[in-house]
Amino acid sequence: MRLFLLSFIIFGSIGCAHSKKNVANKQVFFSVEEEKIFTTVQQAAFQYFYDGAEPTSGLARERFHADNIYPQNDKSTVTSGGGGFGVMAILVGIERNFITRKQGVQQLEKIVHFLETADRFHGAWPHWWNGETGKVKPFGKKDDGGDLVETSFMIQGLLCVRQYFKNGSAEEKALAARIDTLWKAVEFNWYRNGKNVLYWHWSPNFAWDMNFAVHGYNECLIMYILAASSPTHAVPAEVYHEGWAENGKISNNPPAYKNYTLQMHHQGDAVNGGPLFWSHYSYLGLDPRGLKDKYADYWLENTNLALINYQWCTDNPKKYKGYGADSWGLTSSYSIKGYAGHAPSEKRDLGVISPTAALSSFPYTPQQSMAAMMRWYSAIKDKVWGPYGFYDAFSETANWYTPRYLAIDQGPIVVMMENYRSGLLWNLFMSCPEIKKGLKKLEFKSPHLK
User: Residue 68: which CATH number?
Assistant: First the structure.
């Protein structure tokens, strides 16, 4: 379960010393060296989804262990959510000339063919498949069917791909049309289970036994946006307001830390806000710039969550080695003992830094994210860098540097760094006419809706 685990910004021309960009009305200057390392980090993470893809499906592997030590012999396990981040990463690869457009199309056609033929459940894909066969691989004892949250991460990515290629060559238009068919097949209304809320899972063997109604606030906003926007299986607005927002309870008792206050109650024991991926997963395509509804200003919410995370690590109340203004970032990731939902609190800060947390926050905290990236790359690269860039997590306190990667953490690095650079995925996703209609139905405001 990953609930606690789940024209604004464009590089200017490079001068003799600096590249200039406008970020949320603040002028930030990066040196040529910083920009070069930025691209190196982005490209290395991208390769996880290209060179590192499972060869039959073309999708991202759930994990990659550079030490070749895998649990459950799962080198063939591919993931729908992380794979969705991966299809967005492929678009970045094309735009940044990491691969050619033809190479990108070939990879995406392989992925789409897999998605058309692999196990689905009322249009929704499972969390995991065997990439060689397309058969569901249970994520848990009763989690052997449709996973609507992970499916939504995939659809978010596929819609970006559709928009990118919809006016392209005949081959590209055909790819976009096939993606459109996949999107329209997801039965969001089925996953209501007859109620005004969306359920995370349904199983052909266990039906609704997992009984996981998804209430906010966490990483799942995109699922409700897509459900409201579906042209074939949409849910009414009350599913969002009564289910996700719990009739307004989402605004009760929002957390705060120092000078940073959040606007919504964060699910679980999120004393100072949840793990930082809550500011990333739903917003890889959904543009938080100027996005507002009656519950929150989402740019402010995400920025403050990132700043709380940064401030907590800078304050370092638990006195961990290596924490500071140039080394921060707490989110769900590998941990010293297995996997953990790291977050800024006494209970959930385990002394483990997850590079994806700061790197994927570039749009919100550009200076702070750059400081962390430069320190890791220049000072401890020999310990934290491998074939696909920075490892998933490390602890200087425990002298723990495990050479492992997770798709759900590598993908947001590529995508959010590109959104910081150019707004590419934000602009693609928000150009979808169905998304505009769905956001208006839910009474959202956004510059994209004008």
Answer: 1.50.10.140
